[in-house]
Every structure is written in structure tokens, then in C-alpha cells.
Specification:
The chain is α/β, with parallel strands linked by helices. The protein has helices at residues 2-6, 27-40, 44-53, 62-81, 148-154, 158-162, 167-180, 198-210, 225-233, 240-246, 258-274, 312-316, and strands at 11-13, 16-19, 83-85, 94-97, 101-102, 115-124, 129-139, 165-166, 190-194, 221-224, 283-285, 307-309. Strands 4, 5, 6, 7, 8, 9, 10, 11 and 12 form a 9-stranded mixed beta sheet that branches. The protein has a 3-stranded mixed beta sheet with strand order 1-2-3.
Length: 317
């Protein structure tokens, strides 16, 4: 029975054949492979000319442009052959881009960070655009007075946090906002997207532990866009500014301001989706008994949870 499923035949859906991973024998995939080889041998200016002819974005380094051209050729050839790949089906309908800002000192060694800015930028992966935003500042309780370094870095002033609600209230508001948009429904197909593992694996975890709060279920796994970016374009991991530069973009707004960072990460995510990347969940927390976090002593130790990779196969299995 299992082997029959593995060797399942292509289904017909509106006249389109859907190919499984084991069924790449269709001649169209050989054509795509040959086209990819040709693109690999092209110079950057030649790739830009082809993209310009197709009225596509010509900004970015060669690796980015090469991937973009390969994707459009693949789409054209699969459409002409009426073949649809499972690889082209989006893993998530919505992506929630989150980039926290937290209290900090110039020397952060053994420092307990508290979240002071909570932004969410909501991307509709079907429409390939930002559709909603949530934004709030949080009043810190363990470090109520912001350091000069923190204010200079983030642009967040003492007055902003003094007038804000404390983290538990803001988390509740964020979850109410998510529920309003049906993102908390059991049938919701959404994922958190961050620039690296730190927002959930360090800031959210530390915040919940300090306040002895249960860790939110929706924050236990996420899309690490920095990993996706490097793997998809075949280049080394880099920070937000460098990712934008490699795409031929510039940062919009104020760096290290949570909502502006989130908006720029969203721009990168949309560009990745347009270029053919499937931004599936690729990281999660492996800390035991996260649901008991509220019962742990906030200062028992500074140990952070283990963060591990999640494969697409594992998600679907």
C-alpha cells in the first residue's frame, strides 16, 4: 500500500498534471535542466538583458538574477507542458514577519533582554503583498529605565515605553489581532517569519521566562529567512542590509526600529517568493516542557533552549 502511494500516478486537475518528486521523467524537466545550464554560463549583463526583455526586475547580484531567470523559464515551460510541480505549491498562506526590539546595553554579556517593541507585518503569499500590520511598544519591568545606548540604537525613547502597556498585555493584544484575522484558527495555514533565530529563541523565550508566562504555541517554530535566502540564492548568510543590497534594494525607514526592520524583511520575503522560493518553516525550539516555562524560576540560569532545523519533508510527514 505504501509503495503504491510512493509511486502514485500524476493526477489530472483542470487538465494539469501534478508531478510528485519521483516523477521528474517528463521531457519538460530535461528542457528546464538544459535552460538552467545555459543560464549558468551567461554573464550578468546577458542575464539582465533577458530579464529586461521579459519586463522583470533587473536589480541584484548575478546569483539573484540567475535564479530569477531560471524561475521564469521554469514557469513558462511547465505551463506550456501543463505540468504542475509540488515544489511550486506554497507551504503557507500567510507569513507574520516579526522583528522585536529589546532593552540592551553596550556590553550585553549576561544581560537579560526585555522586549520593548512588538511589530507584526502580515504577508499574503497568494497576493504577494503586505495586507496588515500590528505595532505596539512594551513597558519593561526589570529594566524600566532605557540605556542611552538602547535609545540611540533603536530610536525608542523613555517616554514611549513609559506610556506603553507591559508585555503580557501587548502579547494579549497581538494574539487578539491574530485571532481577528483568523490566524489563530486550527485551519489557519500561517507561519512566523524572522531574520535569524533570535526573536523567538532568545527574546520571546527570555521574556516569558522572566515574567513566568507560558510560551506561546505559535512561536515555537518559524521561517528563518536568513537561512532561506542563503540556500535559495546559493550565497553566504548575511545581515538584513546586505540581503537588501544583493537584491538591488536599499533599507527604507530607520534601522533597528522594529516596525521598519519588519517591513524591510517583508520586502525581502516577497522578493524571494516572486523569485520562486517556498518559504516554509525551517527552525523550531526543542526545549522540553515549554508549557511549564511559567513555573520555572526567572533567574535560575541563563540557559537558552535548543534551536534545531525543520525540513519540509518533516513538516508534511
Amino acid at each position: 500500500m505504501k509503495s503504491t502511494k510512493k509511486k502514485q500516478k500524476a493526477r489530472l486537475s483542470d487538465g494539469v498534471r501534478i508531478k510528485s518528486e519521483s516523477q521528474y521523467s517528463d521531457p519538460v524537466f530535461k528542457q528546464i535542466s538544459l535552460a538552467n545550464g545555459t543560464i549558468n554560463r551567461m554573464k550578468k549583463e546577458e542575464i539582465k538583458e533577458k530579464l529586461a526583455e521579459l519586463k522583470l526586475d533587473t536589480r541584484g547580484v548575478k546569483e539573484v538574477l540567475s535564479k530569477r531567470l531560471k524561475h521564469v523559464y521554469k514557469k513558462q515551460k511547465l505551463t506550456a507542458a501543463k505540468v504542475k510541480c509540488h515544489d511550486d505549491i506554497m507551504s503557507c498562506d500567510f507569513l507574520l514577519v516579526i522583528d522585536f526590539e529589546a532593552t540592551c546595553e553596550r556590553d550585553n554579556e549576561n544581560y537579560q533582554h526585555e522586549i520593548i517593541e512588538f511589530p507584526i507585518v502580515l504577508i499574503d503569499t497568494t497576493k504577494l503583498k503586505v495586507v496588515e500590520e500590528f505595532h505596539a511598544f512594551c513597558k519593561p519591568t526589570f529594566h524600566p529605565k532605557l540605556s542611552t545606548f538602547c535609545t540611540e540604537l533603536t530610536g525608542i525613547t523613555q517616554r514611549m515605553v513609559d506610556r506603553a502597556k507591559e508585555f503580557p498585555d501587548i502579547l494579549n493584544e497581538a494574539e487578539m489581532w491574530m485571532a481577528k484575522h483568523h490566524l489563530m484558527d486550527k485551519t489557519s495555514n500561517m507561519a512566523i517569519l524572522t531574520d535569524g533565530p533570535w526573536d523567538m529563541g532568545r527574546f520571546m523565550y527570555t521574556q516569558c521566562r522572566m515574567l513566568q508566562m507560558p510560551f506561546p504555541r505559535w512561536a515555537r517554530k518559524w521561517v528563518n529567512i536568513r537561512k532561506h535566502y542563503a540556500n535559495f540564492y546559493g550565497i553566504k548568510k548575511m545581515n538584513l542590509g546586505s540581503m537588501l543590497n544583493n537584491l538591488g534594494m536599499t533599507f527604507e525607514g530607520q534601522q533597528h526600529k522594529g516596525i521598519d526592520d519588519s517591513r524591510n524583511i517583508a520586502r525581502i520575503a516577497i522578493r524571494l517568493l516572486q523569485d520562486g522560493s517556498d518559504l516554509h518553516i525551517n527552525e523550531r525550539l526543542f526545549a522540553r516542557k515549554l508549557q511549564l516555562l511559567a513555573l520555572q524560576s526567572p533567574y535560575k540560569d541563563n540557559k537558552l533552549p535548543t534551536i534545531g532545523p525543520v525540513t519540509k519533508k518533516r513538516l508534511s510527514g
